[in-house]
Amino acid sequence: xxxxxxxxxxxxxxxxxxxxxxxxxxxxxxxxxxxxxxxxxxxxxxxxxxxxxxxxxxxxxxxxxxxxxxxxxxxxxxxxxxxxxxxxxxxxxxxxxxxxxxxxxxxxxxxxxxxxxxxxxxxxxxxxxxxxxxxxxxxxxxxxxxxxxxxxxxxxxxxxxxxxxxxxxxxxxxxxxxxxxxxxxxxxxxxx
Length: 192
Hints:
Elements: H1 2-16, H2 20-45, H3 49-71, H4 79-102, E1 106-114, H5 115-127, E2 131-138, E3 143-152, H6 156-166, E4 171-177, H7 188-191
Antiparallel strand pairs: 1-3, 1-4, 2-3
Helix pairs in contact: 2-3, 2-4, 5-6
């Protein structure tokens, strides 16, 4: 029983060796730092270099101060390393959620549909301001129409909902893309 108390005492000592406010500071600063790192990588990959550079500066400043706070005295308070690791994991999750919410970039929505419905779908999407390219295709049993709709990721749910409202049986394939030219909304350069 004495051994059990010894282990418990050591555990309590490790957990209380650092003030709670310091652990919280490490945890939340690490979340912010890793979130910025996640967003930085995504922004740079999607061509938003200026914004990525700004985030990288803030990210590294946070890293220097947070990491130095953790490394100093980690042998006396290993809880700092655990809290730092938990902050890292939470930061990756938070960064990916924020990026998904911001929805940087553009997608190519490809729709394979019946030729007749495809014409109606093309006209509707064009009236709503989407760039639509069509290709005549041949399916197993009948002629098909392939629609290619280029749009912002933020508008992807609206496009899908509109397509499914006209043709619930349409096959929809979505790819993230990078482009060099073509039809773009006038707002594209305003954001980038």
